[in-house]
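testing teh design pipeline on a random one, pls ignore if ur not involved
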C-alpha cells in the first residue's frame, strides 16, 4: 500500500483537478467516489495517522456559557477524522425534516428529499451499516418495543442502526492509496483559500511540519472539514459571507435525560437493548412522534430511548454500572465529560463516600460482573462488528429516558472568529450555542406525549413532576458534543445561506462544502449517514460537471 505523501518544501506547489480538504467521513467518501474518474484528486489532511496532541491543540477556542463542550473536543485531527472515535449510530432523515414548517424558523431544504434519500443505500454500504431498512418489522421481526404498545401519535417502529463503527481511514484507506488518480497528502494544515481571476479560487495555502508553507492549485476545491472548521477556513479567507450567514444557525441537537418510563406491570416485555437485524447489524428501537402529531402540536422531530440508571448514582446497586463509573477516568475525555457532569449534578454522596458506595457494588456483585465482562470483551473487542455500548435491562421495569431532539435554526446561535491566533496564524473560534423556546417546548411536549400514549395503551407511565417539567427542561438540556450543523447552510440565495443547491459557495465558481455545515435543518438524527449521502451527491455532481466539460470541448 502506497504511503500518504508528506507536505512538500516551502514555496513549492502541487497541481490537481480536484482538491479535497479533510480526510474524514465526507472527504474520504468523495475520494472513493472519484476513484477511477480520470481526474487527478488530492486529499489534504492536517493530521497524521494516529493524531498528535500538538495538532489537536489547533482546534482549541472559546465557548460562550458553560453548556457547550470546548471546540477541540469531539473532533480529531487525524486520518479518518472523528470517525476514529464515533459510536457508529446511523439514522436517516425523515420526510418531515426536509419540509418547510411554518412554526420552525428558516426550515425547509431547497432540494427535494429524494436528492438525499436516493444516496442512502450506497451510504449504508460505505458505513458498513447493512441494508437501508429502518423499520423494525422488516429489518428485525414483528413485535412491539413494549408488548401491547401501539399508538398513532407516538411510534415505536423505527430503528437506529450501528456501523462497525467504521474508522474511514482504516476501512477505506487502502482503496484510496491504491488508486492511480487519488493522492493523499498528510500533515498539511489548510490555512487560506486564495482567489484568482473573477470568482474562481486559484489555490489553497497549506502549512506542513515545521511551519513550511506550500500551495495546492486545482480546478475544483471541496472543504470537508466539519461544521466548525468550515467557518474558520472560509472566514479567514474572506469567503462565503456575502449575506452575513457564515457561522450562523449553528445546531448540534438538543440532548436531555428526563423522566422515567415505568412499565405496567413491571414485568411487561420490552425489547430493551440491542437486537440484530436480519443482515447482522446491531440496532435499537426507540419512540418517535409521528409527523402528523408534530405538525398538530407545532413541535420538531425527537427520539426517545429507554436507558439504564445513571452510572454515577450508586443506589442502582448494579456492579457493571459502578465499574463503568469507576473506569471513567480511563476513557477518552469526550465521553468521560458526561460522567463527570452526572456526578456533579447528583445529590448523592461525593468524594470518598461516593467511591466507597461504588466499590461496595462491585465487590458484592463480582460474579455478575465477571460474566458480563467476558461477554462484553468478546462482543466489544474481539468481534469486527462491535457491540455499540452498554445497555442493561431493569428488573424493576423502570427506565430513565434519553431524548435527542431537533434544534431550531437560530441566527443568534453562531460560530465566529476571534482575535486569538494559533501557531499557524489562523484565528481561533468562538462558539455561542443558543436555544429557542421551540427547542425547550419540543422536549417537554415529547415527554408528555409519551406518557399519554403509555397510559392510553395501558402499558405504563412516565414519571416526572408536571408542574416543574418545563423548568427542568431548561436546566437539563445540553448540546450533543460531536454534531456541528448548519454553519454554512444551503440556500437559494446568499441572503439566506452560504452554499447553493450543489453545495457550491455563493459567489464562487469552484468552491464546495461537504459536511453537516450545509444542512438547513438538523432533524433529531445523528448526521453521519446524511453527511455521507450528501458527499455522494456532490461527487455525482462533480463527475457530471467533468463529463459535460469534456463533451463541450
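output:
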Amino acid at each position: 500500500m502506497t504511503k500518504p505523501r508528506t507536505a512538500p518544501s516551502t514555496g513549492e506547489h502541487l497541481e490537481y483537478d480536484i482538491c479535497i480538504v479533510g480526510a474524514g467521513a465526507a472527504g474520504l467518501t468523495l475520494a472513493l467516489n472519484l476513484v477511477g474518474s480520470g481526474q487527478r484528486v488530492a486529499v489534504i489532511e492536517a493530521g497524521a495517522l494516529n493524531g498528535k496532541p500538538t495538532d489537536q491543540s489547533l482546534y482549541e477556542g472559546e465557548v460562550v456559557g458553560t453548556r457547550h463542550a470546548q471546540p477541540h473536543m469531539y473532533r480529531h485531527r487525524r486520518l479518518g477524522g472523528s470517525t476514529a472515535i464515533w459510536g457508529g449510530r446511523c439514522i436517516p432523515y425523515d420526510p418531515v425534516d426536509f419540509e418547510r414548517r411554518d412554526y420552525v424558523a428558516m426550515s425547509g431544504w431547497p432540494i427535494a428529499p429524494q436528492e438525499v434519500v436516493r444516496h442512502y443505500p450506497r451510504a449504508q454500504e460505505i458505513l458498513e451499516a447493512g441494508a437501508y431498512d429502518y423499520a423494525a418489522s422488516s429489518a428485525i421481526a414483528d413485535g412491539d418495543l413494549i408488548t401491547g404498545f401501539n399508538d398513532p401519535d407516538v411510534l415505536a417502529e423505527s430503528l437506529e442502526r450501528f456501523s462497525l463503527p467504521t474508522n474511514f481511514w482504516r476501512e477505506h484507506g487502502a482503496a484510496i492509496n491504491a488508486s492511480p488518480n487519488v493522492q493523499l497528502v498528510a500533515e498539511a494544515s489548510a490555512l487560506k483559500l486564495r482567489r484568482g481571476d473573477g470568482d474562481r479560487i486559484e489555490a489553497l495555502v497549506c502549512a506542513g511540519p515545521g511551519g513550511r508553507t506550500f500551495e495546492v492549485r486545482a480546478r475544483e476545491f471541496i472543504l470537508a472539514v466539519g461544521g466548525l472548521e468550515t467557518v474558520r477556513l472560509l472566514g479567514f479567507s474572506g469567503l462565503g459571507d456575502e449575506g452575513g450567514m457564515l457561522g450562523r444557525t449553528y445546531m448540534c441537537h438538543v440532548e436531555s435525560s428526563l423522566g422515567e418510563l415505568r412499565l405496567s406491570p413491571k414485568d411487561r416485555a420490552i425489547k430493551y437493548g440491542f437486537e440484530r437485524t436480519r443482515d447482522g447489524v446491531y440496532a435499537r428501537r426507540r419512540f418517535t412522534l409521528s409527523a402528523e402529531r408534530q405538525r398538530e402540536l407545532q413541535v420538531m422531530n425527537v427520539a426517545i430511548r429507554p436507558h439504564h440508571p445513571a452510572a454515577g448514582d450508586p443506589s442502582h446497586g448494579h456492579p457493571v454500572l459502578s465499574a463503568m463509573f469507576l473506569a471513567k477516568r480511563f476513557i477518552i475525555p469526550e465521553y468521560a465529560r458526561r460522567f463527570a457532569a452526572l456526578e456533579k449534578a447528583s445529590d448523592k454522596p461525593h468524594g470518598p463516600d461516593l467511591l466507597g458506595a461504588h466499590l461496595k457494588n462491585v465487590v458484592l456483585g463480582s460474579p455478575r460482573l465477571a460474566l458480563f465482562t467476558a461477554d462484553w470483551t468478546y462482543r466489544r473487542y474481539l468481534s469486527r462488528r462491535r457491540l455499540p455500548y452498554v445497555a442493561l435491562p431493569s428488573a424493576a421495569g423502570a427506565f430513565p429516558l434519553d431524548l435527542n431532539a431537533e434544534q431550531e435554526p437560530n441566527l443568534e446561535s453562531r460560530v465566529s472568529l476571534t482575535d486569538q491566533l494559533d501557531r499557524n496564524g489562523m484565528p481561533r473560534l468562538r462558539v455561542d450555542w443558543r436555544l429557542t423556546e421551540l427547542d425547550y417546548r419540543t422536549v417537554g411536549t415529547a415527554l408528555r406525549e409519551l406518557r399519554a400514549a403509555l397510559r392510553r395503551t395501558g402499558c405504563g407511565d412516565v414519571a416526572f413532576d408536571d408542574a416543574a417539567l418545563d423548568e427542568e427542561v431548561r436546566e437539563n438540556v445540553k448540546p450533543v458534543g460531536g454534531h456541528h450543523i448548519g454553519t454554512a447552510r444551503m440556500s437559494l440565495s446568499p441572503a439566506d445561506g452560504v452554499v447553493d443547491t450543489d453545495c457550491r459557495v455563493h459567489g464562487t465558481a469552484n468552491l464546495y462544502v461537504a459536511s453537516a455545515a450545509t444542512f438547513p435543518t438538523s432533524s433529531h438524527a445523528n448526521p453521519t449517514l446524511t453527511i455521507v449521502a450528501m458527499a455522494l451527491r456532490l461527487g455525482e455532481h462533480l463527475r457530471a460537471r467533468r463529463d459535460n466539460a469534456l463533451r463541450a470541448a
